[in-house]
Amino acid sequence: MKFCVIGVGRxxxxxxxxxxxxxxxxxxxxxNEAIIAxxxxxxxxxxxxxxxxxxxLRAIGVDEIDxxxxxxxxxxxxxxxxxxxxxxxxxxxxxxxxxxSQIHKEILELVGADEVILPxxxxxxxxxxxxxxxxxxxxxxxxxxxxxxxxxxxxxxxxTVDEIDFHDTYEVTLLGKKVNKKIIPxxxxxxxxxxxxxxxxxxxxxLLYLKNL
Length: 213
Known about the structure:
Elements: E1 2-6, H1 10-21, E2 25-30, H2 33-39, E3 45-48, H3 54-59, E4 67-70, H4 76-89, E5 94-98, H5 102-110, E6 115-117, H6 119-132, E7 136-142, E8 145-151, H7 161-164, H8 166-170, E9 173-179, E10 182-184, E11 197-203, H9 204-211
Parallel strand pairs: 1-2, 1-4, 2-3, 4-5, 5-6
Antiparallel strand pairs: 7-8, 8-11, 9-10, 9-11
């Protein structure tokens, strides 16, 4: 897989460097020479240029990239232009764009972005969930549906996964348990132990009920 990150602000910098740490091929593009100099040794390729047309994108090989992340959210017009060029002219398989507002997001989707994210909004939701929900939300899939981490209720200890029957009894899905920052799947015959951190998905209402058992 080949990735390209266009625009290296704080968001783009973290996306590009983490991709590189995950041992994938990463091309970074930004018009600021100082920024390119600061990231050059941390990614596969770093190019200093301002993208304004299809020829410029083809010249640096973006048409051969599998996934492009457009991280230049503050430049409203340019992010829309680049998204349109990538999807409509270069036919890049996957384009993910950063947005700064709902209307920006809607326009990016209209010109073909496969995925649009609003980092500030998403960070705000995560913080609000952490402050207000009585269980640790790992990922919100919808307004009232989450993947969460819950300490195994005392009622479960010593019972097997099959005996508890998470899906039919509690209307949640058991994804596994967290051990040393890793998620380990649990087979039906495995017993729940005291202190187990269970990773479950379901409606917030059902997750709250499970936590309070």
